[in-house]
Amino acid sequence: MTAGRAVAAGATASSTPGAVTITVDRIADGDGGAYFWAIRSVSDAVDFSTAGESLPDVLHRFAPEIDQSQGILFAVPHRGLLMARDVTSGDHLYNGIGMMGPYAARAHDRYPHPVSPEVSVWLDGEVTRVTSVAAPGAVSYTHLRAHETSLHL
After folding, report:
1. What is the pLDDT of residue 145?
2. Model pTM?
3. How far apart are CA 153 and CA 136, in angstroms?
4. d(CA 49, CA 66)
5. Average pLDDT estimate for 101-123
6. Residue 104 is inside which H or E element, if any?
7. I need a surface site. Which of 15, 35, 123, 139 has the fewest CB within 10 A?
């Protein structure tokens, strides 16, 4: 199973070997770092719910554009969707998580096979949650400041 690459905002790449289709979209919202890659399985043949175990390999295969050197922000709101982006700093980091958090929470609530509405960071094999969802639509970023401080001081 392979996937093409999205090379511009809103571009879609897909591959259909047999009955499996994976789409890769770069979702962006203006300037300031608000973007992420959405890797979707259009069938039940691919389950991203365990992607955290081999996240760098999965992203290398489907979204090699993501710079993994400082870690990976990711969410798996339902088993057919993996959202990911590189860890940056400052406003780019906040704006990216600000976009990913609500998107993940909505996707978790609206689609079958929910996994988690939360955004986490993967760094050197460790996964740390950076958002939490206390109620529908309410996303907390309590762990974000500590994470950014430890990475970028």
Report:
1. 46
2. 0.76
3. 34
4. 20
5. 91
6. helix 90-110
7. 15
